[in-house]
Amino acid sequence: MSSAASFSTTRAARSRERASPSERRCRSTSSFRTRATVLAVSGADGGFHAAGLAPGAYELLARAPGYVDLLADLSVPAEPELHLEMERALELAGRVTTPNHKSVGRIQLYVQRRIPSRRMTEEQARKYRLHGGIHDLWTDEHGAFRIGGLKRGLYGINVGGSFGGPNIARTRFDQIPAGTTDLELVVQPGLEIRGRILDPEGGRIPGVYVFARSEEQGGGTTGRTARSDAEGRFRITGLRPGPYTLRMMIHGERGQRVEERRHVAAGTMNLVVRDVDRTFLEIRGRLFDETGKAAGDVKLRAVPLGGTTPEAPLRAVTDSAGRFVFRGLRSVSYRIRIEDERFADRLVGGGESVRAGARDIALHMVGGARIVGLVTDAAGRALEGAVVLAQTPDGVLRRRASTNVHGRFEVTGLPRWSALTLKVSLRKYATEVRKGVQAKATTLGFVLRRGRLTSGRVVNDNGEAVTRHALLFLPVEGDDTEAACWTDEKGRFSSKELLDRDYRVLLRFFVAGKQRTEDLGTIRGGRRDLELIARALPGH
Predict the structure, then answer these.
(1) Mean of pLDDT over the chain
(2) Which residues pair with 522 in a beta bridge?
(3) pLDDT tens for residues 127-139?
(4) Are strands 90-97 and 183-186 parallel, antiparallel or unpaired?
(5) Long-range contacts of residues 365-368, Cβ cutoff 8 Å, at least 24 apart
(6) Which fold would CATH assign to domain 90-186?
């Protein structure tokens, strides 16, 4: 035991159940200032004595310079003597540079210890992180960094923050052993998106926070954040190549709203986001169940109709009297639907088209239609885990289900008034598409056929790889199947979901925020090592 170690306790029940998110975040960075009481300081022999603890469960934290914080469960009354063994702390150190060895100074790093197993419980994962911590730091003007207090294990480092700093594409480095002190983290220069935000009259909108979210495969990578200035201009930096969705948070006197603009390519320098509505309207009303009683604690969602500008989901929850309020709406019509797993088989009567600004409307929960079916392979064997997607032609309403061990599925909460498109997909099988299905059809059969491995590479006229772009495969004859995949960093693609038939290959890309497609020709499913040439793709 190290000398001069300090010991503190935190009531386990209070810290685990009542701690606020900020308090939990504080603990996760190895700081126990919240709800912690210092009990004792160890002497030269490592011994310590603590008295006055009420009976109960505690978390005991031992901390000493040069050692990893030790977190242990403690029950009072406990054993007469505890033996705690602390671990020497390790470091990570190195430099952040560009490919030409230029130092990247004043850039933010996030260091997090890797969780070795997804089977860990939430509590085990919390303690695992606490022992190594989640740390953030900045490189100095020479690109150097050093962080101590780390436990043995593997760490991941994210380079690049969310707001400000050098224009460097956010990059993650994994599998770094604690104790490595000669790291050289090589990052690529980032791309930008620049633009202006205007209202329907052409007025500039200042103070809008703009977030960029990647639309590529494995999306969820968030770029940096910007805020529009007095002229409505914004500049987002640190982006990787590819398409992004811009989420704009607009504030007003009567609430706030998030609007979206999709398919904006990194590198766009003169984007004009027009017709951003600063109107903030409400929809107020009550929801009743089938018996006419108020339906309380029901989650609702409002979706704009008529191909209007996409925006983030608008949600509300009914109170005990069934009352609900949607705020921050634009002056368009919305469809109100139930977004609650407990009522997945219900629709909202009267909520098909509600104009923003409506008040005191009465909506009723009504039973939706269902589709039941069976999915098998060509030999008649039931297929478990196939995903069945049913959606309306406008895509506003979507319902999903998965097949059970007997290959059966049931999709509920479907409208009776609209024909539906059903897609049935399963890994290594060709997706089956069926259009014009009426929800009154109660039993459907789907036979999935094994796909054939199809692979190749997409290049431009100069032979350069076309990286991280989406490919869509459509059958030359019929519309009963489809497939899609992405090219990797070397322009390669592969799919196991094509049949032995001819397909048109479409390459998707974006110009000035608008989606474009290029026809790369016709291929035969099951062919390998194909080479497809993209001639119309800009920037290659």
Answers:
(1) 83
(2) 504
(3) 665 555 678 899 9
(4) parallel
(5) 365/287, 365/288, 365/289, 365/290, 365/295, 365/298, 365/338, 366/290, 367/290, 368/412, 368/413, 368/414, 368/415, 368/416, 368/439
(6) Immunoglobulin-like (2.60.40)
